[in-house]
Amino acid sequence: MESVLARCSSVPASYNISSLQAADSRAASSCSSTQRFASRNFSVIVLNAGKPKRGGSISSPRKLSIRCEVGSGTVSTVRPTEWFQKQFELSPFSRGCHIITRKIVNAIPEICEFEVGIAHIFVMHTSASLTINENASPDVPLDMEDSLNRIVPEGNHYRHLDEGLDDMPAHVKASMMGSSLTIPIKAGRLNLGIWQGIWLNEHRNYGGPRTICITIQGQKRADGRVYK
């Protein structure tokens, strides 16, 4: 594990975790095995950050632990940033907008280990998309599909008709809606609003299975336990 030792001769009252995380970020992009960053009353030494590659990047800078040594000798430790990634397949959906929040949560039980973080959810296709919207009324997904069909109608006016009239409109809708979501993690859960749900928008008549890749970055509980 890479480590960052921060010696603070005089730490300002406004100094906070964000400053340490900024040092974390700079350390990850360092181009030498030992690199010093300095600002007024604060210096950071990166130790054992890995061998530099061509172009200046460090090989596999996955975890950084920052320790701030205050003048009194008290040491405060910032827990390392952890990474987790899972790829899985969703069974085929009919054309339209579908709420998949529960499927996403069930696919990543490991999220219960994280106290705080970010979940990045990515659909690996060009004719399906992801979005966050209403999770209560069943009419909202139906109205959304109708609206998308009015905005991007099918027809012979497209050049790309290789797989049918729904082919090119599906690509346009996928670009409009987007292929990824970023959701905060709080106390082992996706920190969604009470009326928010994760939608998979299937833009093809017969889209087939859809592959989802979820990447989590964050900090786990200090006591090593998991949230229930």
TrEMBL record:
Signal peptide stretch: none
Tree of life domain: Eukaryota
Coiled-coil residue windows: none
Gene3D superfamilies (UniProt xref): YjbQ-like
Cited Pfam families: YjbQ (PF01894)
PANTHER family, per the entry: UNCHARACTERIZED PROTEIN YJBQ-RELATED (PTHR30615), UPF0047 PROTEIN C4A8.02C (PTHR30615:SF8)
Family per record: Belongs to the UPF0047 family.
Descriptive protein name: Secondary thiamine-phosphate synthase enzyme
